[in-house]
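User: C-alpha cells for this complex, please. No commentary.
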Amino acid sequence: MTLQKRLRPYYLSLIGLVITVVFVSPYAVMLLDALRPSGDVLASPPSFLPREWQWNTFGTVLSDTRFLNWLKTSVVVAVSSTVIVLLAAVPAAYFTARFRFPGRTAFLLVVLITQMFSPTSLVVGLYREFFDLTMVNTYASIIITNAAFNLAFAIWILQGFFSSIPKDVEEAAHLDGCGRVRTLWHVMLPLTLPGLVTTVIFTFIAAWNEYVVALTLMQDDAKKPLTVGINSYVTGYQQHWDELFAASLIAVVPVVILFAMIEKHLVGGLTAGSVK
Amino acid sequence: MTDQLDASAGAAAPSAAPVARSPRFRRRRHESGYASGLSAIPWLIAPIVLIAGVVVYPAIALVQASLSDYSITGLRRGSAGFDNYIDIFQHDDLGLVLWNTLVWVVVVVALTILIGLGLAQFMSKDFRGRTVMRWAIIIPWAASLVITARLFTLILDYEHGILNQLLVTLHITGEPIDFLGNDSWVMPSMIGVGVFVSLPFTAYVLLAGLNAIPHDLLEAARMDGASAWKVYRYITLPLLRPAMLVASVLNLIYVFNSFPLVYTLNDRNPGFTHDTSITYSYKLAFKAAERSVGMSAAMGVINVLLILVVVMIYLRIIRWREVTQA
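Assistant:
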C-alpha cells in the first residue's frame, strides 16, 4: 500500500512523458525539417537527423519583413476577434443562462446553426458582401468574420458555466445593492473564470489559425495573416520547406505563451481542492 | 482569495446536476427568472448583429447560387430551378462521398471523445511534469491546420516519409506502407490525424468541466464506500454533461466541416475515392470535371442540412434541454 503510494507519482510521470512525446513528435519532425536544407526534406531515403545542420533558418525568417507583417496581422486579428467575442458573448450567455424568455431556445439553436456553415461554402458570399461594403483587404473584415464564427462556442460554454452558479450567490449580491451589470462584472465573472479562460484560448486559437476567409478577403500581401502568408514559402516555383516550417513553429509560440499565462486559471479550481 | 472563489465555484456545480433535485422543484426555482422577449434584446443584440451580417447574408447568397445556372467560367446565366440539386442526386459518387463522410465523422468524434475523456482525467492528476505535458498537448491545436496537414503528408509519405523509415528500421513492417495512396490505408491515416488534431480542444473543454466538479462531493461518495468506478459513473459523468455536450456537438460540426486535413492528405488520389462532402463540394466547383459553381453551392446547402439533422438527432438523444436548463 505505502509502496504503491510512493510509486504512484513516478508512473504517472512516465505516462505523462509518453503522452508528451506523442503530441510533440510530429512537431519535432517539423523542427528537424526547419534545420535541414530544403532539398533534404524530400530526400529518399529520408534521414532522421539533418544530413547538414542549417542553423540560420529561424534568423532568416525572423528578419524577413514579410513575415513580420504577417505576424502583426495575426496578432491584431486574433486579439481583436477575441475581445469582440467576449463583449458580445458574455452578456448574451449570462442572460440566456439566467432568464427564461420567449425565443430563448430558438436563440441558442440559431447560434449553434451558424456554426454549421462551413466557411468554405460561405466565403464566396462573404467576399461579395465585403466587396460591396468596400471592406475587402481590411483587418476589420476578417476580425468581424472571425468573431461571428466563434460566437457559438463562447455563448454555449459560458452559458453552461453561468447556469452552474447558484442563484443564491447572485441574490446575495443583489441584496447588497448591486445592479444587474455590476453583479455580472463583480460576482459572476470571477466565478466563471475557468469558462472565460476556455473561451479566450479557444477564440484566440481559432482566429489565429483561420485560413479560408483570410485567404479570400486579404489579397494585399503585406496584410495577410501568418496562416496565409507563410504558404508563399512553398509554391510551385520555390520550395523553402525549411522556412515554411520555421515560420510555422514561430507561429505556435504566441499561442503557447498566452496559454502558459492563463492556464493556471483553467486548473485553479482543481488545485484548490486537492491541496489538503 | 482565489481559493475562496474556486471553492464557491466548485460548490456551484451540483445545481447543474440532475442528481438530487426533482423536476418540479427545478422549474419553480426558475420562475423568478422570467423575462419578456423585448427585455432580452439589449443583452443579445451584439451576437444577433454579428451573426446576421456574417453568416445569414452569405448563407442567402449560397442558397441563391444553388438555384442558379452558371457557365463553365462561373458567370451566372439565370435561374436553374432545382437542376443543381437533381444533378447532385444523380451524381455517381454521391453515395461514396456520403459513406466516407459518415465514417470520418463518427469514428473521429467517437475516438476523440473517448480518448479526450481519458486525457482530461489524466491531466487533472497531480504529478511531476504535468505542466510540460499540458503545454505539449496544446501544440497541435496551436499549430495551423493547413501546415499540420502538409507536415503529415511528408511524415506519412511512402518514399520520403519519416514514419515509414522508422517502421522499417525498427522492423515493425518489412515494407514501407503507402499511408496516403493505398486505398485501405488512406481513411485510417486521415482518421488518425483527425483525432490527433481534435484531441487538444476536446481534452481542454472536458478538463474545464472536470474542474467545476466539487471535490467534497467525490470525497463524500468515496467515504460512503463507493468504488472508483461507481464514483465516476454516477457522479463525475453526470456532472460532466454540460462539458460533454459542448465538446461533442462542436466536434461533430468541426470534424464534418474539416476541410484542410481531408483535402491535403487526400490530394494525390484521383476522383472522389476518399473525399468527404465538404471537399466534394469544393472539388465540384474548382477541381472535378464538372466545374459547376451551382452544383457546388447545392452541395454546400445539403451539407448544412445534413449536419443540422445529425446535431438535432444528437441533441435529442442526450436531452440537451435538461443540461442547459439544469
